[in-house]
Amino acid sequence: MVKDILSQIKYKFSQIRFNRNKEVKKELIESFGKIKIDDTFDFERISKYFKNRDHSKMHQVLSDKTCNDLDFEDLFVLVDHTKSKVGQQYLYNRLRTIELDKSQTKLNEEVIDVLLENTELRISTQQKLLKLKNEEAYYISELFQEEHAKPPKWLFIIKLLSITSSGLMVLSFINPLFFFGLLGVFCINFVIHFWNKKNLAEYISSIPQLLRLNAVASDLNKNVDIKRLNLNIDKSIRVIKQVKSRMSFFQLETRLQGEFEIILWFLFEIFKTVFLLEPLLLFDVLKKLDKKRHEIEEVFQFVGHTDMLIAIASLRSGLETYCIPTILSENRIIASEIYHPLIINCEANSITINEKSILLTGSNMSGKTSFIRAIGLNVITGLTINTCFAKSFAFPLLKIFSAIRISDDLMNDRSYYFEEVLTIKKIIEEGEKHDNNLFLLDEIFKGTNTVERVAAGKAVLSAIARNNNIVLVSTHDVELTDMLSGEYELYHFSEVLNEKNIGFDYKLKMGKLENRNAIRILDINGYPKDVVNEALAISNALDNLKNR
């Protein structure tokens, strides 16, 4: 009878698991190629691994300034198709660090092709990765990137009290009087036990998640194609498993959280207090993990890398147009039907940049800055995840710097112009290092008067266009187009006007903008006739003075 009941319970649980796995599988199939719509993005925790990592060997680390200029966080939301928090952190780090490794890129593409062709493998891999979707997985990186809590100098007293408790408990069965001694020691242990809670709190998330990470890595490693991402990962997995039994103690702590487990939790707390298990095990585990930082990071990267490759495959599947970039040895850019990935139904444009940099003119909202950002974002995604939002895109290994979105620094009492001066000074300094740089600038020195803006702008733009640097800059100052025509190719965006409204085709056109429509736009938008007429008269007078 009892056996039959147990069999029925077991069958029901297996059915529940089967149905749940079936629902998860269906969701994974339907969500492939689509952006996350229900997720919130906690960039403070997503960027945690990136901020603490050593990037000294990278070709470039994208600055906060450039990320802000190019709307990097919005790009990340678009690109992030990961299923684990580890993969999310790994992808964020990858997008912000430029390191060209042709052999690794080739291997990545081979694994991506396998994941795209083998749907069952992709789904089963994603199901494993979902085990690390809990936000507590964000804290795994702390175990190999940050200093661990140090044991107190009086740790030997904790060990002595634990041994004393054990002895008194045994003696209590012989003589009940020893039980009172046990109660006295328990009171001391109680204080130490709850003193240690602040240390435990730092690791109650990360240590159990490390166990889960290692288990996921072990499962992923069974596939021959995924294993190729790190052929030596077995060693790191085994090293972490050596501490598994001790770490499992902290995993049990996190499981005793439900209503029915409250009694078990209470009894478990008493047991731990009597023998001071928490501080003894915690500092013992931390001591061992401190010597295994390299292995923990290797496992972290192995799992994160796998998740990132599936995310790239998913991203590409959801795009109507994308390409794998061609990295050139010569210093030129060839873009065919390139577009800004964050603009819905963005107009695609094509351009070839050879010996000269690019100077863009055009009215506000015509597409100048969006085009500059499109080039910058595509260079970043091309060099990091080998994916570009274009029909084809070829460019050299570049470092990217920008001066697009500048604001006052009120905390340091700096004006807009002063902030602009400091930003462009850094660009000049980078331009003198003889690296291949891509400089993205929008309306240079717009924080000062016209005469000095044009003079300083010409001098700076001439300087930064040297030494194999590629510059894309927009301006409203038509004077710069004449001064820089020998050093920059001229392009423009233009609006389409009729009697009642203004429109834009967002198409890149060769040459400088010949038509000026700013005053005409005032007229279309209902400005008083006397204001429009006076503006036209002054504009004509200034043109006559300039042409004398």
Describe the structure using short key phrases.
ATP binding; nucleotide-binding; transmembrane; Rossmann fold; 4-stranded mixed sheet; P-loop_NTPase; 548 residues; 25 helices; alpha/beta; ATP-binding
Commentary on this structure:
With 548 residues, this protein is an alpha/beta fold. Among the domains are: 144-303, no CATH class; 326-515, Rossmann fold (3-Layer(aba) Sandwich), CATH 3.40.50.300. Helices cover 57% and strands 11% of the residues. The chain has 25 helices and 14 strands. The strands form four sheets. A six-stranded mixed β-sheet has the order 8-9-10-6-11-14, with helices on both faces. The protein has a four-stranded mixed β-sheet with strand order 3-7-4-5, with helices on one face. Strand 12 and strand 13 form a beta hairpin. Helix 7 (102-117) crosses helix 19 and helix 24 runs antiparallel to helix 25 (529-547). The radius of gyration is 31 Å and the shape is elongated. The chain starts with a helix and ends with a helix.
Query: Could you name the CATH topology of the domain at 326-515?
Result: Rossmann fold
Residue windows where pLDDT falls under 50 for at least 5 positions: none
How would you sum up the major sheet? Answer: 6 strands, mixed
- CATH architecture grouping of the domain at 326-515: 3-Layer(aba) Sandwich
Shape: elongated
Q: What is the number of E strands?
A: 14
Domain DNA mismatch repair proteins mutS family: 355-540
Transmembrane segments: 168-195, 262-283
Organism: Winogradskyella flava
GO molecular function, one term: mismatched DNA binding
